[in-house]
Structure formats: structure tokens, C-alpha cells
Amino acid sequence: MKVSIDIIEQRLRTAAAKLVPEDEAAYFADLMLEAHLKKAPRMNPLEDAVADLDVWAAREEREFTVNVDKESVLLLDFEGLAPALKIKYVHDELERRARKNGMAAVGFRNSSGVITLGPWADGLARRDLIGVAMFDGGTECTVPFGGTRGVFGTLPLAYAVPTTGEPITLDMAMTEIPYFQIDEAKKSGEPLPPGVAVDQRGFPTTDAAAALDDDGVANLLPIGGGFKGYGLAMLVEILTGSLIRSLLSTSQTTGWHPPEYGGLVLAFDIASFTDPDRFKSEVSGMCEQIRTQPGAGGGSGPAIPGDRARQTAAAARDAGEIEVPEALAGKLEALAGS
After folding, report:
1. Could you give the C-alpha distances from 322 to 14, 106, 118, 136, 314, in angstroms and in order?
2. Does 338 score more than 70 pLDDT?
3. Which class does domain 176-220 fall in?
4. Residue 123 scores a pLDDT above 90
5. How far apart are CA 319 and CA 63, in angstroms?
6. Which of 85, 87, 187, 255 has a CA 20 to 30 Å removed from the CA of 206?
7. Where are the chain's structural domains?
8. Long-range Cβ contacts of 322-328 (<8 Å, 24+ apart)
């Protein structure tokens, strides 16, 4: 069913305001809706946001614990709650600490998980900070280089860099494709793209059934398919695991158990390193030079990370409404109390 974008934002905000302060609710609604407009229909961040609201609504105790509070570091235990409802609190703390110390980090653990990671970086770029965010993302999805069975999660990572115009933004898994894509391919019988997965013997395959076990263990390749991507995946694994008192994939329970996963968000204050206007001008100039390159094979030419997502979001806003499954629209309406 078609639903007005304005109505969706109002209902997200109203539902969230029952659970967190009004300013935090508005911030949550804005960032989560923007993420949905950028990613739908390939992904469904609106469904994730509604699930986060549902987690909070089902709880009488809605407190989180601060495990570490230092000048540049904050470590939070969310006690099973969804971190997204406190994204403004996290960004406020990052901004305050980064302005003072040049950079800051917030780690979080024992939460109901993060599916849509982009807003955690995007909101920082709006504040003229460079934002980097990462999340463990589960277990047994990424096969080690030269291995035969998935060990790591998909380890999503996002960053956002301010420019004189729209920020550079990237939100990706550390695997060649996200888990949902191999799951959908197995259900539909469609072949996988080449170079994204291996079978249980470690040989390349385009057969999702050969790369995804019935128990959910996947043999997805890390980005690039080789040792370099595997090395980057291991870094994200460590930063979202032992560093923040969470579990590494090798110690996690098989299946989807978000309280066992951790996240880390970093903020860099540009003004602590260089003149912000100069920085943004130089980065914008680089982007424009890249955009002017002729396209390979007569194509449209290179894009800057975030360009296509913003075009998707702009088209949705021009239409003024988006397609929302009836059950999801009804769930959001009920949470908002409309």
C-alpha cells in the first residue's frame, strides 16, 4: 500500500516519543526515514526501525548502563534494548568529546542489534564531523581466506565525510554481498553473482544452496574475495568484539543472537586537524574531478559513494509517498497510537 512520507515520519516520531525524549524521537525518525528512502526496495530500514520501536515498547525497564566513561571513550551496555532509539544521545556525546579532544569513540554491546548502520555515520557528517560506524553483524557468514566454512558475521561498516555539498557516504557489508541476498537466492533458486561465495570444499560457486547451509552458516567471501578483504574483516571483527567487551564470532552462539554482538562509532573533529572550510573544499574538488571522468565503455561515469542513494531518496520524496507492506504500516500505526 502507498503511504505518505510525511505520515510515516510523523508516526515514527510519535511512536518514539513514547519511549525517549521528544528531541531524540525526532532525530531517530529523521535519520531512519532517510535511510529507508535511500535503500528501499533492496532493503527495508523502515521495518528495522519499527522492530526497534517494538523492542522498547515491550520493555518496562528502559535503561542502559555506562561501562566506561572517559574523555574520548564511552562504552554502553544496552541491556537488550535497540541502540537506534538513543542515536541522538550517542551523537551528542561523540560531538562533545570530539570537539574537545579531536576524536571520540562510543562502543555499545548487549543490544537488540543494528541492521541499518548508515545513520550512525550520516548523522555525524551533518554536524561537520567525519563519522565511522561498524557492527559485528552476527556469526558464521564470512569464510576466512582459504577456508571452507563461514566464521565472521557480515561485519557492516559505514562512513560519512562532510563536503561543501552533500556528504560522501558509504554503508556496506564486509562481504561481497549481504547475507539477505544469498538467503533470497537460495529460496528463489536464482544463481549468485560469480566471485561472491564458495561451497563447503572452498571452491567458487554461484549455487546459493551450496554456499548456504540449512543451519544458516554461509560461505560468503570478504570484499575483494581475497586476503586483503579478509584482513579488513578481521579488524572490524576485533574492534566490534573483544575491544568493547563483546564476543568474537568464534565464541558466539550459532544463529542470530544480537546481544552477543557489538558496535563501535567513531567521530573525528575536522577543526582539530585542519581548517574545516579548506577540508570540505578540497574533498569536494576531488569528488567533482572524479565525476567528470568519461564512463568506462561509454557508461555514465564514476559516482561518489552516496550519489545513487541520494538520487533514490530524492525520487521518493518527489513522489511524496512510498510502498509499505500493509502489515508493517499497521504495526507502525499501532505503535504510534493513531
Report:
1. 19, 34, 20, 30, 12
2. no
3. alpha beta
4. yes
5. 39
6. 255
7. 176-220
8. 322/2, 322/3, 322/5, 322/8, 322/36, 322/37, 322/40, 323/1, 323/2, 323/3, 323/40, 323/41, 324/1, 324/2, 324/3, 324/8, 324/46, 325/1, 325/47, 326/1, 328/44, 328/46, 328/47, 328/50
